[in-house]
Every structure is written in C-alpha cells, then in structure tokens.
Amino acid sequence: MSDDQNAVHGRVEPIESHDGATDDDGSRSGRLTRRRVLATSGALLVAGVGGAGPAAAAGSSGGRVQPPSASASPGPIDPRPPGDVSLESVEAVVDERMADVVENGDVVGANAAVVRGGEPVLTAGYGDTSLTDGEAVDADTPFRVGSLSKPLVWTAAMGLIEAGEIDPEEDVRTYLDAVPVADGEPITMAHLATHTAGFEERNQGLWVSDPNEARPLATVLQEEQPARVRPPGELASYSNYGTALAGQVVADVAARPLDEYVEEQVFEPLGMETAAFEQPPPDGSAAGYTAALGTPSPAPGLALELWPAGSLCASATDMSRFMRSQLGDGSVDGGRALTADGLARMQERWFAHHPAVDGIGFGWFEDTRGDVRTLWHNGSIPGSFYSHLLLLPEADVGVFLAYNTDVGASAARDVLDGVLSEAVGSTEPSERRPSGRPERAGALEGTYRGLRIAETTHSKLFTTLQAAELSVSVDDEGYLVTQAGGGRTRWVEREPLVFDQADGTETLAFGGSDDEITDLYVGWQALRRRSRFESLGLHGALAAGSAVGMLAGVVGYPALAGWRSLRGSDGDEADDGSNEDGGERSDEDGMDGSDVDTADARAQKYSDGGESPTPTGERVNAGDESRLGALLAMLDSPGVARSTIGGSIVAILAFLVGGTAGIVVDPTLLSDPPGWYRALLLLPVIASLGTAVSLASATLAWRSGTWSRRSLLHYGVVAAGTALACWLLYYWNLFGTPG
Q1: How far apart are the first and last CA of the chain?
Q2: What is the pLDDT of residues 45-74, one digit of tens each?
Q3: DSSP per-residue codes, 115-173
C-alpha cells in the first residue's frame, strides 16, 4: 500500500515508500539525483504533495517565504510545455524488459499495460501467480497494487466535486458524520489530495495479519488519528491516513460505503471487471513473494485497516481502462468516470513548494523528463507487491506495471527508464559553472531531513531512520554541494535560492524567511533543516557510550563478585580508596550485601534523636522516625545502589532484545502492537524508576562515606550509561505506550 514517490534525474522513480523499502540505483553512479536524495528514506511509507495556488517568490521581504496557499481556489499552474515524444517502440520496451525480469528468476509473476492514443496497445502477463500451482499470469490476473488505490479514490472524490456535492476548499468536518477531526485549522479535501494536511506519520492503523481482525474504517480513523504537527497547506508529507479520511468523506457525502460507491461510479462505467477493494484478495489473484534472502519465498498476507489507501486488487486489463479514462477526453468505450473538465482539473497542479520544482495534482505526482510533463503514482505491499502507473498526458500515453515480488521497485525503474528514454530521449546538458558564491551561502549550509516522521509515537526512531537526509555545503569554487548516501552532486545558482544541477537536468530550491533558511525542496517533496542535536550520528554516539556504561555493570559487577568468590573474600580486604574522613574503605563495600556499616548501624544513624534529617535537610517528627529511618537505612548502601542499577540494566536489555525480536518476527508489530509489546514498553519506565532509586541510594551512601573512590567511580560510569539509555528511549518514544 505504499507509494514510493520519486521523480529524479527527470525519471519517474520510487523515492520513498510508505510500506516497503525502495532502493536507489543512483548510488551506482555516486551522483546525487532527486532519486538518490529521496530514496535514502528507505522503507515504510510514501511521500506526497498537495495544496493549491501559486508559489510566492523565495526570499520575499519580511517574514517567512510563503508556500502555495492551500486556501486559494484550486487552479492550474501551467506545466512546462510538451516536448517531442516518440511512441513507436514503447510497448516493445515494456514487453521485453518485463519478460526478462521474470525469466531471470528475480520476479515470480508480473503484468503490464500500455495505452496510446486512447487505445490499449499492450496488456500482458508474465510468469506465474504462485510458485506452487504453476498457473500462468495473464492480463486479467488481479494483483495487489497498494497505493495505486489512491488515484481511484481521488477519481471518485473529483466526481463529487464536479457534481457540486463537495467543495475542495471546505473544511472536511462539514462532510464527516462518523469521524471527529481534532480541533485546529480547517483541513480541506485539497489538503488531503496533496498530502498537505499537516499530519505526522503514523504506523498504527496500517497493517494487520488477519483481515478478520481489521476494525471498521470509521473506527480506525477515529482511534488512530495522527497528530497535526504543521499548519495545513504549508508542506507536503505523504499520508495514508489523509487518503483514508478523504475516502470516508466520499462515503458520508454519497451516503453509502466507499467500496460500493467506487464500484458504481468508477469500476462499472470504465469496465474494470476484476477491480475490487477486497481483503484477502479474490480467488485467482497473484500471491506475494519476497526475495530478501535471494530466492523468492512466500510473503505474509498482510491486510490494511486504512483500506482506501491501499487495498485495491486489479489486473492489467483493469488498469489499462483506468489509464484510458485519465487520458484524452476520459471516455472508455462510451463510459466515463469524469467529464473532460473534471479530468483536466484532476491533472492540474494543485500544490508546489516552489515554482521551480515539480508539484502535485489532485492525487497525482508530477515529474518532468526533458520538456515532457508526466503524472504518476505507485504502490507496494511490505515485502511483496510493487506497482507503478505513469501517464504522459500531452502524448496520450500511459504505462502500468505490477509485480508480485518485492524486487519489483528496481525492476520497474529499469522498465520506466527504458520507456522514457525511448519516448523522450536524453540530452546531456553542457556543464554549468558558478559566477561566484551563492547568495546567502552560509544560511543554506546544514543538514535537511524528510518530513515523514512519527514524531509522537513509538515509530519515531524507525521512521527517522527511513527519512531522507541531505547535507548541504558550498565549496571554494562557489558550487552548492549536496551529499547523501555517499553520493555528491554540485549545483549552480540560477536565481536566489534556486539551483540547477551543474552537469544534469535537476533543480532544487530553498525556502524560509529573511532570517533563516529552513526548507529544501526536491521534486515535490520537502526536507526540513535539522539541528545538530537531532543528528542520528550524535544519538548513535550517545547510544554507544550508554552501552559501554551499562556493559561496565553487566560485566564488571559479576566479574568482581566472581573474583571475590574465588579468593574466598569476606569483605575485609582494603583497597587504595579512602573515605572522606581519610580512613580506608573496603573495595567490596556493598557488593555482597555486607556494607562497611552494618544495617543496624545505619538504622541507628537515621533514628538517633527525636527528629531525623532527610537527604534534603528537612526534619521529620518522631512518630515517623522509625519508618523513614528504616527506609533511609535500607537505601544508604552501595549494595542497594548497585543492585537497583543492575535491575534497570536488565530491564533495558530485556526491552531491546524483546523489541528487536518482535520486529523481526512480526511485520505488523509497529502498526498493530500486541499486548506483550505494550507490556514490554513499560520496561523503560521501570528502568527509569530503578535508576532514580539507585541514584538516591548512591547519594546517601556517598554522603555517609561508605564508598571507596574506585567503587564510586565505577558506579558513576554504570549509572550514567543507564540513565542515558533511559533518556534515549524516552526521546524516541519507546517509553510506556505506543502513542
């Protein structure tokens, strides 16, 4: 159900997948293209862009540079003019390359469709539906197409907009009956279609292992609503939740279930006979496979709770007819889902971060190759299916590809490169050279990170690891230099805050205010400047230091206890440390439970007199003296400090081992957290409480002079490492609840 949105190097490529990993072949060249920049997002989700209205000029005086206004009336932003397109061999390129990838054994089964001039010129199947029954794939074999479900939902929504039943600039709360949307600025269908509603990424509500366990759509939308982390209409960040919420709007306005409405208004008029929002897939569908271990093996059959975002099953024949409905005048054998005006409106640019970069239509992503504008979308099911749909509206050409194996993303990239090279060709531009340093060069430098991050839930770490990250600097020759994943690309400033690739065709732009540059725009996606504190490298170093500290306890304390056991130690040996009064202290103080001061002596110390001092210096009445004295006496012990910090370390390690094993074994753990995992999230809380008790105990023992210097130093290293681990788990939301 994921979409890998990538339009890089002027090629349509997967960049960032919301449910499956996408590799970037830009790494082979060592160059940074849009594909490479955004493919570093890795796996898990898709990105998108949305909004309406023209973009303000970057660097405008006074305050923040404004992105295209999502409150303005939607309307076209003129695309780049069409260039020359050669179509004679497109279907041959697709057919040959699809057959090759199946014959090579990389993919179990695939299907494809090419339409041109309003007619299907290729609908074909390749390979087998599964490895067990040997049934051949044909053009009518249904495949799970993941987020290619979304353009179908947006087509249905545009039909209601055409009918005047939905205003795309109206607050969706006006139309929703069953799902309350959190208070805040209005969110519109234009925001949802362009992924600019301001939602954070959220895994909960995506995948379950059993379709029968899926909750009703309205329930999931209400219970798993993501936090709103930025104003609507400001920046685009791909959202599965947003499309599912739009599907609920369609259902509430149409007063019938969404799947029934799409069947009636889209599938039936277009003759898409096997297309269906159905989980599990209908009989005769292709089975899913993963090639993660080299040889294709069966993948788990996951079901999507936010089903409008990615549960469609469709054949090459179905998608051929859908592409025909999106080209020309939208008519397919006399049937249509949209009028010609509605179709044109759906394909207009509704949002762009900057006029110099690509934008988003009403549910479509925009890319250019040479002077040719393309629209596209893709989808995936984690660990199995991948699909991609490409439209060249000016040329009246569409290409659909689907694979039932998770290497389909790279296979599709090869096919689409071939299609675009054949249709548009490629021209190597002359190398550009800077005339000087870029304007505001110092303000541009820094590291920028993708927006598709679960900022408030337990998926924060995993989505951050998958987010694109790009380092920006200016070299001595005046080139802007971007680096990601080991690749390095140089750029030349065309105008303030807009840069063209020095030896290529790509463009990037920056946004922010007169005081600060905050955003980097690549294709339709935005990356935001991150602080040094947010660096994964810094957090990795902190984690390593924490591990060293905890290891000192895990290894040091048992090793010391074992050494004493071998020596027959009774706790009397002195070390070279001394207490604060200058006397000698045992190196074993508290390790075996027999501190230098006996428990009775400590109790007497805290019970002496009518009132007893607390660690903060307050006095306690005699009536409470015995209980508090016993508690303080118990805590005033290096042995207690060590044992409680040891328990905290055990809790942290148990969480890390259990959580890692769970993610490996259960692909739905982050989206459908089981009870045992929710209980596991309590361990970091317990570890934090244990660490606090240990530090209190160590403070009392230190004030009493019952530590040797060497033992106190060792304990300090262990406690610091453990406390740091607790803080890191808290920072990454792995603390108490999934969120």
Answers
A1: 23
A2: 333 322 223 222 222 223 222 333 333 333
A3: EETTEEEEEEEEEBS-TTT-PBP-TT--EE-GGGHHHHHHHHHHHHHHTTS--TTSBGG
Q: Identify whether the C-beta of residue 722 lies closer than 8 Å to the C-beta of residue 649.
A: yes
Q: Residue 626: phi, psi to the nearest 5? A: -70, -40
Residue 392's DSSP bridge partners are 397
**Residues in Cβ contact with 368 at an 8 Å cutoff, skipping those fewer than 6 apart:** 7, 10, 80, 358, 374
Write the DSSP assignment of 573-634 as a string of letters: -EEEEE-TTS-EEETTTTTTS--SS-HHHHHHHHH-SSSEE-TTS-EE-GGGHHHHHHHHHH
Question: pTM score, two decimals?
Answer: 0.85
Q: Which residues contact 244 (CB under 8 A, 6 or more apart)?
A: 217, 220, 221, 306, 307, 308, 309
Is-cis flag, bond preceding 120, omega within 30? Answer: no
Taking residues 173-185, report their average pLDDT: 92
User: Pairing between strand 574-578 and 525-529?
Assistant: unpaired
Please report the sign of the dihedral spanned by the C-alpha atoms of residue 92, residue 95, residue 97, residue 100: negative
Query: Percentage of the chain with pLDDT > 90?
Result: 66
- Cis bond upstream, residue 180 (ω within 30): no
Is the CB of residue 676 less than 8 Å from the CB of residue 669? no
Residue 265, strand partner residues:
none
Residue located via tokens 């990424």: 201
φ/ψ (deg, to 5) at 507: -135, 140
Residue 650 has pLDDT above 80, yes or no: yes
Q: What is the rounded distance in angstroms from the CA atom of residue 142 to the CA atom of residue 129? A: 9
* Cβ neighbours, 10 Å, residue 217: 23
Token look-up 């991948």 returns 386
Look up residue 272 and give its amino acid.
M
Query: Are 508 and 499 contacting, i.e. CB atoms less than 8 angstroms apart?
Result: yes
Q: Is 57 exposed, middle or buried (0-12, 13-18, 19+ CB in 10 A)?
A: middle
d(CA 739, CA 734): 9
* CA-based max dimension of the chain: 101
Cβ count near 411 (within 10 Å): 23
- Residue of 525, 467, 530, 5 whose CA lies nearest to 235: 525
d(C-alpha 371, C-alpha 179), whole Å? 43
Residue 70, token pair as written in the block: 């999502």
Residues 547/539, Cβ–Cβ less than 8 Å: no
Between vectors from CA 347 to CA 512 and to CA 345, what angle results, nearest 5°?
100
* Nearest by Cα to 126 from 107, 99, 146, 157: 99
Centre a 10 Å sphere on the Cβ of residue 461 and count the other Cβ atoms it contains: 18
Average of per-residue pLDDT across 627-652: 83
Which residues are CB-contacts of 235 (< 8 A; sequence separation ≥ 6)?
Answer: 67, 196, 198, 353, 451, 519, 526, 528
Domains of the chain: 7-56+68-423 (3.40.710.10), 441-532 (2.40.128), 537-597+636-731 (no CATH)
